[in-house]
Each structure stands twice: as structure tokens, then as C-alpha cells.
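name: query_chain
kind: protein
chains: 1
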Amino acid sequence: MSLQIKYRFKSLDDVVGNKGVVSSIRSVLERDKEDIPHAFLFHGPKGCGKTSLARIIAEALDCDSASVMEYDIGDMGGIETVRTLKEACQYLPIMGNVRVYVLDEVQSMTKPAQDALLKTLEEPPNHVYFVLCTTEPERLKETIRSRCHMYMMKPLNSIEMGFLLNRILKEEGIEDYPKTIIKEIIFAAEGSPRNALKALDAVIDITDEKSALEALASFSTTDATLKELCQSLLQGTSWDTLRGIVKQLELDNEPESLRIGILNYMNTVLLGSKRNDRVNDIIQNFSMATTMYHGKSVFSSMVYTMCPLVSETKPFLNKPNEPAKPSLTKKLTIKGSDPESKRKGDIPF
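structure:
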């Protein structure tokens, strides 16, 4: 059995990270049955435990496994699916007293389908509960979001990911596992427990550390490209160069996972250096806000913010034996001010 299936979160006590979400769900599920909401919405990057929590909620509601109905809306997001679902809601489950519908990738649901689902969410049958999971909550109607208890699942940070990996290694009976491999897995996972377990599963039986690291390097092309972006940020590379890397990464990756991947990489660098103000600035910049509701535009802006000004990089663009060209800035003095308090600024032409 693969590690990602064997160690999938099966109870709230198993969950690593997202402590606020876990505490809130625990308190909600401790209420009397009639006070528990009939609709939950989990949103966050892929592989962060949304559907695992959906199944945990179903179990806590004493829902028989045969009465947990999971739909991949990415494959069946039309109105006919919702009509079939609404019709099925009218009937009591064959096993148990509760039926739970888990709607994964619900952002793929068409507008007519969302309208049809809304009516069911407003007045659900007493025996029916819904758990919606999405990576793009902004694509859902506000009226649907307002009918659900919403929880944002955040990617794990490097400390939480390290705890999870070490816990699994201990349960597998493995001691003194190389820290360099654990660090590489943390970076490759980009905050996703699922990705981390897949990566660990790929190298856990490799006894040679060098071979394991080589296997991780080929595990995902995204890892190498993201590492290239991190190293370029550290070197103060210009936006003209970085934008190509950003475009490549944004083709197949969620901006929030990329943001967490950068933070994990920079945290590793910071902990391994005596002092590094550049790393600290990058961490501060990428910690300012989530990209969950804004996507690629905010992520691109975060990268752009860390690029040096044209005037700072221009001298480095000269040929080896050519003297540096003058800076493309001009000092501006505000006339009429007190000589001792003249204001000056760099105004680029």
C-alpha cells in the first residue's frame, strides 16, 4: 500500500497543521445533531487534506461508508449531475440514518448547476449533508459560499511537514533518516502532505543518500524550476529574466503552492546562514498575503517586487571591458525649501 493511502488523515487527531480549522470542526461536531450545519466548504491548494477532512466529517456524523457519495465535479459538473443528486436526496440511505455528499473540484460546476445546487443547500433534507471542496473558491457563487461553513486549508510549513515525515518514518520503523533527504522532500512537496508522502514513498527504500537525492531531483520538473526561481530571487535577478521562469511555473501549478514552496526554501536557507537580510526580505514579501483569492496576478507581483530597479542592474549589463554606464536616474531638488532640509529623490527617466 502506498504511503499516501496508508497514512492519509483518518481522524482529527491525525491531522498535521491547520490547527484553527481542526479546532473549529471539532467544536462544531460536538454540538447536538440538529445544530450541526448541513453544508461545509473546504478551499485550498491540492493535496492539503480537503477530501480527507470531508471523510472525517462523514464518519463523525455516523454516516455509513456506503452512504458517502463522492462526486468529481471536474468530470461531471453539469446540471444533469445536480438534478440526479437532488432526486437522490429525497430518499433515506439504505445503511444508517445519514447521507453525505462530497463534491470535489466544485469550482468546475457550471453556473446553471450552481443555481440548481443552491436551492438544495438552502433547504436540505434533515438526513443529508454536503461537503464541498475547491481550489478556486472565487469561482463559486457568493450565495453558495454564504450557505456553507467555510474553512481555508493552508499548505503545511516546513516545521509541520518535517514533523509529519518524521512521524511516518518512526511508524515505519526507520531511524536516523538523512536530514538532507527530508529537506529535499519538504521543498519538493510545496506544502502538500500528499506530495510529501508520494516523494517519500519514491525514495524510502533507497539506501544510498546520493541516489535518493538524484531520484528526488527527477521526481518533478516543477521542483527544479521552482528552485531556479528561488536562487534567482536570492541573486537579485532582473524581471526580464524572472518573468520567463514565472510563466513556466504558472502553466501547471497553483500560485499558492508556489508561494509556500518559496517560503519553505527560504526558511531552509535562513536557518543555515548566520545572517541574510535578502532572505529575510523575501520571506517577509511572500508572507504578506495569500494568493488563494487572487491567483497568478498576485504571485507575479510578489516576484516582481523582489526584482532590483533597472537603474540597479544596468551597470551589470555592460561588456567585461566596458566601463559602467551612468545610472538612469537624476537627483531632483525641490526649489524653495530650506537649504538644510532639501528633499531629494531618485526619479527614473
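note: The longest helix spans residues 255-271.
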